[in-house]
Amino acid sequence: MSDPSYRGTCFCGAVEIRVTGTPKAMGYCHCASCRAWSAAPVNAFSLWSPESVSVTKGAEHVGEFHKTPQSHRQFCRVCGGHILAQHPPWNLVDVYSAVIPDFEHRPALHVNYQEKVLSVRDGLPKFKDLPKDFGGSGEMLPE
Ligand SMILES: [Zn+2]
Ligand SMILES: [Zn+2]
């Protein structure tokens, strides 16, 4: 059986991507950078191996912005819609779950909850910053 794959597009459709297989992690990030970049109170992320993610159309329209070396944020130059963020230190790519509508987002955790502007009482673990595997303190906060 072949791995499942999901199609995604930017806001206007000039850029298309495909993700294949299973993400390494899914959850919500509450950090100020994700909030500002997504223009939303919380960002739903899905983290994939770089080999799982490809741009299938409109690669020439993809722009990239680095505020920090940890996150190479990619967007469509035509519509300004956001597509994904590469995280080279972790060798992972965050494909924003909203960009791949047929993919079922099954969150397991919340990260950077100390920066939250929106409380989410869904019973999932709330990491103050990041899990230890990702260089964080691993500390938890109440919902
Ligand atoms: Zn676009
Ligand atoms: Zn974040």
UniProtKB/TrEMBL annotation:
UniProtKB keywords: Lyase, Metal-binding, Zinc
Pfam families recorded: GFA
Residues of the CENP-V/GFA domain: 6-122
Family of the protein in this entry: Belongs to the Gfa family.
PANTHER family xrefs: CENP-V_GFA DOMAIN-CONTAINING PROTEIN-RELATED, GFA DOMAIN-CONTAINING PROTEIN
Designated name of the protein: GFA family protein
Origin species: Pendulispora brunnea
Organism placement in taxonomy: Bacteria, Pseudomonadati, Myxococcota, Myxococcia, Myxococcales
